[in-house]
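Below is how a single chain appears once it has passed through the pipeline. First comes the sequence as given, then the structure the pipeline wrote out for it. We keep one example in the README because the format questions we get most often are answered faster by looking than by reading.
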Amino acid sequence: MKILYALAFTVLTWASIGAQTLSYNVQRVTTAQGLTSNLLSSICQDKYGYMWISTVTGVNRYDGYGVKNYEHIQGDSCALYSGGTRTLLCDSDGGLWLGMLNGLVKYRYAEDCFQKFGDSTLSWIHKMHEGQPHQIYVGWNGGLAKINSQTEQLTYFDGVKCGLGGAVPAVYDIAQLGRELYLATATGLMTFNLDTEQFKTIPPVPETEGKRIIRIAVSAKGKLWCAFGGDFATIVQTNVQFDRWKTHRELEVIAVRPSNPITDLFIDRQERLWVSTAYTGMALYSEASDSFQLIKTESWMPHGLPSVIIINLFQDREGKIWGASRKGAFFFDPDNNLFESVTPGNHAGADEYMLNARACVETAQGKWWLATGNGLFYMDPSSGETQYFANEPGKPKVLHDNSVRTLFIDNVGDLWIGTAKGVNILRAGKMKIEFLGEEVGLPNVVTKAIYQSRDGTMWVGNFSIAGHCYRPPGEKKFRPLSDHPVLAPHQG
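Resulting structure:
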């Protein structure tokens, strides 16, 4: 599948953003495009290029243009089985597997039909992983199972026979390096060798003692990551020798809920570790700083992450990162990010009107100014410093009006600010805004445009033609357009 993208210009808005925050140009697939629900659980891509997206009410096939829905239909033996789909797997043979609350299901393309495998005990499937050609390993509440994707023979691994000496605990996640599977289980970390089919329990360390491991990932270099159930957004880093351990709490610090569990750990083909959480969205691990960088959610922006609740991550054949969230699916290209949005931060008076950006200018020193529906913002992109200018109750006015309509920097570096009730000016090199009005010939009305022509003439366009005015070079006061020798006859 080759998904086509439409490129649109959007108005950027501002924020006080920290050095640890990333932004990507995100595309969304939601009920607006035809999904059965925006409450998602998993995503995968089959050999035909289709993206399969599971929701709480069904499974959806997306081709980049439209969506085909599959839902449970009572009495239809080929329809999707009842019960929620927790995880999806598209195997190398071209098969689509569904891990459901009540069993393991395969979609048969030729018959456009769903078939269930195993008995009623195979339930609450958490993860499926193709450990070797034609062998699908299934992590579920009862332990670990395997199904041959060609013969469709299902095997349950017995803990006593496979080296544990007891029952296999619930397996929540599976990662692989070489011939070894790394298992996140209800009793901690375990490994499973594909050749000997023997389990091995990894002795707990203080970082994992008494904890339920629910997510696991391992890199090609042998760096292993795991996350816990029922815990804050804490991630433990170790290696496949399990002789070095480090706890990362960066995502725990920013949590705004009493619980912020990690929902997925995903290593892409470029060996980058991506993390999704239940309440703070996504993050990316930085090897250079040995820390996690948060990705801005920006659900109000058309091209921002749609939700802070992200359940599953996936990378398609073109390298795009996909996410299953509680407000639909999304995807972005991590290597060719065309746009970055800067959004309102924790400024006093911040509200939705700040998203209504009207103009943006850059000074000769590389500083940025943004006109919004509720004030004026300044930002130094090199340092991240921001400043907010707006009228506040009980304080001296700093602008004619908070509704800033236009901005212009003249040939001496002064910033002209057109508002809904007149013009302000910020002299070059200063941070105090001055008021301009009738004393210089400017009416206190809605200012729509400000410009300086090559000869140095300043032009101000207002809400009505009668309010248009200009200031010739060398003069201090503006004149009405009706005084202009060339333009006056053309008014009206």
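The two ends are 56 Å apart (CA to CA).

See the next section for the split statistics.
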